[in-house]
Amino acid sequence: MDYIKVVEENLPDVSDARINYEGSKIVVYTRNLAFFLTGEEKIKGIVDQIKKRIEVRIEPDTLPSTDETIRKIKEIIPKEAEIEDIEFEPDFSKVIINVRHPQLAVGESGEIVKNIKKETLWIPFVQRVASPKSVPVDAIRKVLYESSRFRKKFLNEVGKKIYTTEPKETKWARVSCLGGSREVGRSCFLLQTPNSKVLLDCGLSTGASGEDQYPILTASDFDIKSLDAIILSHAHLDHCGFIPYLYKMGYEGPLYCTPPTRELAALLQMDTIDLMQKEYGKSLYTSTDIKEMIKHTIPLKYKEITDITPDIRLIFENAGHLLGSAITHLNIANGKRNIIYTGDLKYSLSNLLDPAFTQFMRSECLIMESTYGGPNDITARLEDAEKELVQIIEETKAKGGKILIPSFAVGRGQEIMVILDKYGVDIPVYIDGMIWDASSIHSTYPKYLAYKLQRQIIDESKNPFESEKFIHVVNWKERQQVMENKEPFVVLATSGMVNGGPIIEYIKKFSSDPNSALVFVGYQAEGTLGRRIQRGDKEVETHSGDKIQINFQLKTLDGLSGHSDRKQLLNYIGHLKEKPQRIAMVHGEMSKTVNLSETASKIFGIDAFAPWNLETFRFL
Ligand code: ZN
Hints:
Elements (H helix, E strand, L loop, with lengths): L2 H8 L7 E5 L2 E6 L2 H6 L1 H11 L3 E5 L7 H11 L6 E7 L4 E6 L2 H5 L4 H10 L2 E6 L6 H12 L1 H16 L10 E6 L8 E5 L4 E6 L26 E3 L5 H4 L2 H6 L6 E3 L1 H22 L6 H9 L1 E3 L6 E4 L2 E7 L7 E7 L4 E5 L23 E5 L12 H17 L4 E4 L5 H11 L6 E4 L2 H10 L6 H8 L11 E4 L2 H9 L5 E4 L9 H8 L6 E4 L8 H6 L4 E3 L5 E3 L3 E4 L9 H10 L6 E5 L3 H15 L2 E3 L6 E3 L2
Parallel strand pairs: 2-3, 5-6, 9-10, 10-11, 11-12, 16-17, 17-26, 18-21, 18-22, 19-20, 19-21, 22-25, 26-27
Antiparallel strand pairs: 1-2, 4-5, 7-8, 7-28, 8-9, 13-14, 14-15, 15-16, 23-24
The structure holds zinc ion (ZN).
């Protein structure tokens, strides 16, 4: 159905209305100030009728100059909000105001923002500055500002494709497994209906070699030219690592994910380019391809309902696994079928995130992760892990030693920071590697964090990521200085499995000191340096051929995982509002996915199964 016609017919007195699609949104550009400022009721009536979002904006050529607008904005926004900079996207008639304290710039019930709109005619968008400061975050935002003309044209094409093609009857829906089935890594699923071809995740398998690293896109089902959309559940590389390559190979369609996922994914992909360069002397893609991805991304908040093809509606909900991680709810053919793809899932509270969402109105079909779905997968209690960590730090400090914590840049690193802040551990904590940038993205998007932490940041009582306890180690020179430090300290550094990153430097320096400790807080995969140290090898060799004698204390903390254990996964199914009729168990070692699907079948009396890669199943 062409909704633009409907909107046009309903606005006979706005003679100059220029009506466009911008993705699934409809935008009316006008020079009619009265309508712009007071037309809300009329627009609401049309929205009720067509159930699509409509926005009214002033034609860019009628807007006041940017200088005048900046002056007015600075007058209206209270000083205490601390404006850092103001950017314009004239193609969208939009002004982006970057401030340190968004709640002060927006006003109690949004009255300050409304006033800016009235006084300047620009559409204001208040954004929290990345804090602590982060170069990659600024770079990503710059790509967005600079590509606004491109994005406007792109969004219009996307909208036209969704709404102006006459859909065929949706008689079937099928999902093909192109990676991440009966294995962990390279997650990739292709959902097809008579009207749509949509990819759910497209990741890399970092542990594998050769073509097993990549999703099986040579499968005859897959055709990059006819792909309508990619949906990304979260920023981990086993879900997003292959996406820039699709843009390199000529994919020109949209990528849907939450705003924090867009930024974290770009950060991790940039890092993977470096790692590939070091390991293979070349990389699968370059930063240009990542930029293409950013330009084609349509960010969606949790609970925002969006048409992505003529017969698929998408809604993201919190997955509790990582900042911005989403459970994908796909409503097919106006609710004829609902598919829920969990991505990675945590169904219990952590310091960073609230537990995964379960209250779907409909959920006939479930595609679910099973990383820790095996009979022996029982995770320790979070509180026990926290207390043990604090105890290790206190004991090591008393002996005058250093505490080294290898950590993934995103998620685990911030969880540890919040724990150290919560317990008020009195010791300097050095943050080395990308953990710092990822923390910056965390405090930029407090609304995606656990409610308690969110209030802490928004109410300004205390942002743990800005605590003075944490000291950013920026370069190798500073790293040398830190290592010369005679006093005890904690260092939190990448990489999580010790197969690269600054943590190796610290390990080399302190591994022979029996008073220091290395604390593992995450999974150490077979074949990694972390695994060899963890299992007790007395001498290990790094990638670069350095031999390291291991003589410091080794500790492993369970209970800080971003995944649900077996009991939580089963509880998750049990707590869904509507029991699914079918469950495909994916994202787990073979025995675990098979075992979990058998158990779920028995407990809930539903058809649960563990598909193989390249298998296709019908959900409608
Ligand atoms: Zn993940």
